[in-house]
């Protein structure tokens, strides 16, 4: 976890993880701007229900049974599962990832396994271990075990005439399902967290009568924990202010530990307040993402916040996004 130099706070609300133009300058002292309206689904406020022991689901030749489940006290916000999965002959597993770490062992049959993005550690039945990197396809035999890190995109297939049976253990974000298909997870994906932001760089110029005009670039960064994972927010904003008020544009990137990213643009406006601080608001457009968000082709949201002091002072900002999937 990176240690911020100057602590500020930003809240990111996107919606809950599911299973399967610039504006003109505003006058100083004007009222706090109102956030642009946006249509978002309500984020879940209740604690997700743990799947019960002996719960069975079966679809498309894939049968999963919960052998054990817990909400561990040493893993707040996460769910721990032990499951058995049976894959019928000739059945493919869709491209997917897990919102946490999963380990599994092949009990019977041969599984054709493809790492699409990221890497995984495989321990063969004889005890030899090796890290495999994407893109690669390998065959897993009885006794072979594999560690899948959070967000690692992969798929599988039983290409044989006999069933494949695996036993899995997974520590997952309790807002997520046991697995999340790539693409299907994008539309309506929800991520929520509070970011302590730090001013990383500020390159601004002051001109005009009594230094009334300010323009330039401000870079802020911060980290938080979302669903048990450390997520980084990088925000770069270009400002054009008169007496502390005016338009700004920004680029934001969220980065997960496995390299998954989600990027967006911001068109915003800032209004100076009487105490020397400012209020600001913006409209976000999602550019796209990688890894678990590779299917994101758009989306929109709002950015609303304030700072109590001059440019570069601590900021509190709220981001609210809804992701879109062009394939849905």
Brief synopsis:
With 328 residues, the protein is mainly beta. The chain contains no helices and 22 strands.
How would you characterize the overall build of this protein?
It is a single chain. The chain is an all-beta fold and 328 residues long. It has two domains: 8-43 and 189-325; 56-174, Jelly Rolls, CATH 2.60.120. The chain has no helices and 22 strands. It has strands at residues 8-13, 56-59, 62-70, 78-87, 92-97, 100-108, 111-117, 119-123, 129-133, 136-140, 145-148, 153-157, 164-173, 180-181, 192-207, 213-226, 229-242, 246-255, 261-272, 278-289, 296-307, 316-325. A nine-stranded mixed β-barrel has the order 1-15-16-17-18-19-20-21-22. Strand 15 and strand 16 form a beta hairpin. The radius of gyration is 23 Å and the shape is elongated. Residues 1-47 have low confidence and may be disordered.
Placed side by side, the strands forming the largest sheet appear as 1-15-16-17-18-19-20-21-22
> Nearest-angstrom radius of gyration?
23 Å
Give average pLDDT, whole number.
77
Order of SSEs: EEEEEEEEEEEEEEEEEEEEEE
Major sheet details: 9 strands, mixed, barrel
Shape: elongated
């Amino acid at each position: 976890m990176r240690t911020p130099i100057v602590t500020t706070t930003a809240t990111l609300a996107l919606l809950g993880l599911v299973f399967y133009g610039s504006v003109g300058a505003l006058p100083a002292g004007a009222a706090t701007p109102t956030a642009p309206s946006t249509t978002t689904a309500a984020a879940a406020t209740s604690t997700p229900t743990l799947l019960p022991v002996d719960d069975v689901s079966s679809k498309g030749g894939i049968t999963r049974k919960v052998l054990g489940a817990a909400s561990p006290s040493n893993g707040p916000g996460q769910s721990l599962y032990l499951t058995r999965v049976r894959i019928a002959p000739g059945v493919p597993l869709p491209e997917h990832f897990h919102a946490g770490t999963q380990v599994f062992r092949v009990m019977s049959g041969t599984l054709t396994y493809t790492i699409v993005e990221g890497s995984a550690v495989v321990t063969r039945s004889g005890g030899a271990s090796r890290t495999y990197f994407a893109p690669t396809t390998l065959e897993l035999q009885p006794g072979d075990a594999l560690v899948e890190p959070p967000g690692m995109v992969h798929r599988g297939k039983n290409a044989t005439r006999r069933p494949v049976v695996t036993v899995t253990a997974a520590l997952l974000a309790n807002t997520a399902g046991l697995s999340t298909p790539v693409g299907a997870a994008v539309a309506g994906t929800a991520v929520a967290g509070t970011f302590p932001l730090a001013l990383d760089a500020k390159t601004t110029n002051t001109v005009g009568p009594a230094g009334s005009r300010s323009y330039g670039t401000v870079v802020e960064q911060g980290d938080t924990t979302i669903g048990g994972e450390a997520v980084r927010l990088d925000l770069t904003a270009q400002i054009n202010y008169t007496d502390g008020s005016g338009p700004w544009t920004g680029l934001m990137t969220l980065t997960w530990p496995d390299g998954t990213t989600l990027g967006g643009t911001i068109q915003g406006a800032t209004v100076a307040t009487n105490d020397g601080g400012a209020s600001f608001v913006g409209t976000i457009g999602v550019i796209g993402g990688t890894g678990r968000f590779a299917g994101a082709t758009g989306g929109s949201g709002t950015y609303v916040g304030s700072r109590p002091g001059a440019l570069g002072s601590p900021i509190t900002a709220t981001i609210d996004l809804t992701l879109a999937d062009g394939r849905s």
